[in-house]
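User: Fold this; tokens only.

Assistant: Input:
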Amino acid sequence: MTTNEIYLKSISYILIFLCIIMIIPLRLFPCFISGFLTYEIIISLTPLFERFVNNNHARWIVVTLITIIIVIVMTLGIINLTGFLTEELQKETNITLEIDRIFSDIKQDIPDYLLSFLPQNTEDLKKQIFSIIESNLIVIRNMGHSFLHGVITLFIGIIIGAIISLSKPLTNVTFFSKELLTRINLLSHAFRNIVFAQIQISIINTLLTAITILILFPLFNKHLPLEKTLIIITFLLGLLPIIGNLISNIIIILSALSISLTAGGIMIIYLIFIHKLEYFLNAEIIGNRIKAQPWELMLAMLMFEATFGLEGLIAAPIYYAYLKNELRAHNII
């Protein structure tokens, strides 16, 4: 390898390093995830259609199917949300009385010295909620702005991923372009390993949660509100490492508390067990895919979480898997 080639190869490493590090500070992480995920899905499904049509047409078919599915899901989501809100507004059931009932049940089951920490009634709860909102208006506004920005960049990522998957392979590439494509391919391979492993973990977690909600609770004549919705939420949020499971657990616990304090306590214990099991699954499944020890992943996640926050926690396994791919490609490890 000539001096010029070594120089160009070094530049390719610097560029890819700067790009993946600046993704999170520039708030482009949703775009990064959705773009790579779209590309990997299209590439993975294309061989199924290549049996009937050529490669280019197969990719167009997959892109069309993904577009149709996204439109259908968004449409159904909007219709169901509108229908749910309309139905709730038309119901004669008084939500205030239902909340008071839940408070009354909880107060009967907890010690007297803890009662002072709870709202006395629904009106007291409303005052506390409005007080929290009033004192955190700037934070709430920023959260709304960040959420909207995340949704927009997510859809942009989907479009970019689809366009890249449909593009024709480059011919007569320069040495620098070849090296840069090598870096991107290794990053793509790391992303594929982590995301598909997380899907496997989410499926196992969802099955265990479904057994609890649909089988164990009904055995004791207890039914959680919105059972099927909770299971769907568990699967979707389970695709996010660690934080997704925590969010779904909180939603399920709140649903169980609406039945009784005892049901909520049982669900907390069960979800703690599942949460600990997920750590083992993360270490076992993801560690096996990228050939890393559990402590390596945990250390990477701690460092990235401390540097970049929750997005860093999600990105850590992907970035660490990419690092190991680069080191392995040069026979360093």
